Amino acid sequence: MRATALFAHCFTCGKDLRVERQLTQALTAAGFAVLSFDFAGLGHSEGDFAESSFSADLADLRAAADYLGETIAPPSLLVGHSLGGAAVLSVAASLPSVEAVATIGAPADPAHVLQILDGDLEAVRRDGSGPVTIGGRTFQVGAEFLADLERDQPQDRIGEFRGATLLIHSPIDQTVSVDNAESLYRQARHPKSFIALDDGDHLVTDPADAAYLAGVIAAWADRYVTKAPDSTDADTDATYAAAGVVARNLEGFRTTLDSRGFRFVADEPAEAGGGEEGPSPYDFLAMALASCTAMTMRLYAEHKGWELGALEVIVEHERVHADDCAACEHDSGHIDVLQRHLVLPEGLSQDQRDSLVRIADRCPVHRTLEGQLEVHTTAG
User: Fold this and answer.
1) Which one-letter DSSP state was computed for residue 261?
2) What own/partner pairs with CB < 8 Å and gap ≥ 24 does 123-129 have?
3) CB 77 within 8 A of CB 3
4) Distances in Å between the alpha carbon of 378 and those of 29, 113, 241, 375?
5) pLDDT tens-place string over residues 67-109
6) What is the CA radius of gyration of the chain?
7) Which residue, among 86, 102, 82, has the nearest Cα to 6 in the 3D structure?
8) In whole angstroms, what is the distance from residue 209 CA to residue 194 CA?
9) Does the global pTM surpass 0.85?
């Protein structure tokens, strides 16, 4: 792992917007472990957008940074798009681990967002909330949200940040004018850089522009971010996957696995000649089925409105002969069997238990394992 990065998406967007997705994938490919999330009421997040505020977004960023620090390593890089850019500029100085900040189309003044809201803002302030239209989409916003935008001033905080700053902006941005980048650049400390996205638009809708920005930010960040102290020389040469999994083996059974910025180690048990440094490949297979089963049951229960406690799924792998497996569908040869046991919370009705057992068989990994699975191999 090169380092960790935290990404903040644009106002009313989401982490799955093309440019946001390409940026996180490019950073992952460059060795960054990237945390990208949806702000309250947007994308896949919970909460009500009408009750959100810029201050709440800043609190979410700090909470996400704390989570990274607890699970992997504190973030060294912050990246923000549009209002997400203003947000990362506002919190950067308060996060000691951050060494670099990159923004795309960031407003110097969050109140700039008020200029792109189509609606009766006075009615929102008077009534406490109300509808506004942004880019043809209608949202409910609260009076506190409007007031909060007018209070916060990222251009006053950018000068407090002592790391590297990269400002990317389109000279023809019709949503947030390039004057905002000029204002932020004046306030930022060195080292600071500005890159013009020539003919790009505010949402970076051209895939070529998104790919360009992704590569630029990844290359720029590599210069200013310190390599994670737990990285080894062998790890530095590893190939990181923007999608899928990369397995790298130097010797013996110990193999590092990289997927979307997350790193794991696989090994074999001592009795098989391994070093016991991680789960075996079959352990990972059992983990995939167990975790998918638990997620599927939880999603089903939430859809039904059932209050569930802890769910537990136990999966064990064994290889048996068809003659010794009365429950197996195959009648000859050796068979790989994944034995799955569900530990369901008490207090469920029999109908609920039966439904959860039935839905467990429909988890995507289960269907893949029992479906028409093909593996195609190439060599380079």
Assistant:
1) T
2) 129/50
3) yes
4) 20, 50, 16, 10
5) 888 888 889 999 998 888 888 998 898 898 999 999 999 888 7
6) 25
7) 102
8) 16
9) no
